[in-house]
Amino acid sequence: MREQPIGEAVDDDEDLTGVMWPPETEIEAPEVHASLAKAVAGSRGVRFFTTRLIDVPSDATLGAVQMAIDETAGEACGIYVTTHLADVDAATGDPVLVDEATRPFKFPCSGGFDEAISILCENMRLAGIIPRAHP
Q1: What burial class does residue 38 get, using C-beta atoms within 10 Å of its C-beta: 0-12 exposed, 13-18 middle, 19+ buried?
Q2: Which residues, including other chains, have CB under 8 Å from residue 60's CB and lie 6 or more apart?
Q3: Where are the alpha helices (DSSP H) in 1-135?
Q4: Nearest CA among 52, 49, 65 for reference residue 112
Q5: 8 A C-beta contact, residue 20 and residue 56
Q6: How far is it, in rounded angstroms, from Cα 33 to Cα 74?
Q7: Which helix (H) or strand (E) holds 86?
């Protein structure tokens, strides 16, 4: 058996595909990507969360997800953020990294983070942004 980051034990010979995520971390509004903050501006009682998406076959981090969840309104909004190497600083040789985010995706959600990220990942899978989600 091999331990998955989400704590789910699976057989080593099981055919693993898709993505999974470790437990979410609650974050404060100033830490949220600007496009997500703008998408939920004016909402009250919104809580923000983040986690990484992990490609199951390679165990590589694909990017991050940020979610805004308004349990009172029964809505969630999420974005997928990836970091790309844009350039190399000629003077220092340091990489220049740029964050790129999908458009915010709002949807009804009566549950918490687990339901919200499952819905977001399914929609991103259907759009071809990420591989099929691991059950």
Answers
A1: exposed
A2: 54
A3: 34-39, 113-126
A4: 49
A5: yes
A6: 21
A7: strand 75-88
Closest C-alpha among 71, 3, 10, 66 to residue 38? 66
Rounded to whole angstroms, the Cα distance separating 46 from 133 reads: 26
Alpha carbon distance 111, 99 (integer Å):
29
- 61 in helix, strand or coil? strand
pLDDT > 90: what percent of the chain?
A: 55
Is there a contact between 97 and 83 (Cβ–Cβ < 8 Å)?
yes
Nearest to residue 64, comparing CAs of 96, 39, 27? 27
Contacts of 133 (CB under 8 A, 6+ apart): 18, 19, 20, 118, 121, 122, 125
Q: pTM to 2 decimals? A: 0.77
Q: Span 29-37, mean pLDDT?
A: 95
Q: Determine the Cα–Cα distance for residues 78 and 85; give it in Å rounded to an integer.
A: 23
Contacts 24+ apart (CB under 8 A), 93-99: 99/33
Tell me what the pLDDT averaged over the chain comes to. 84
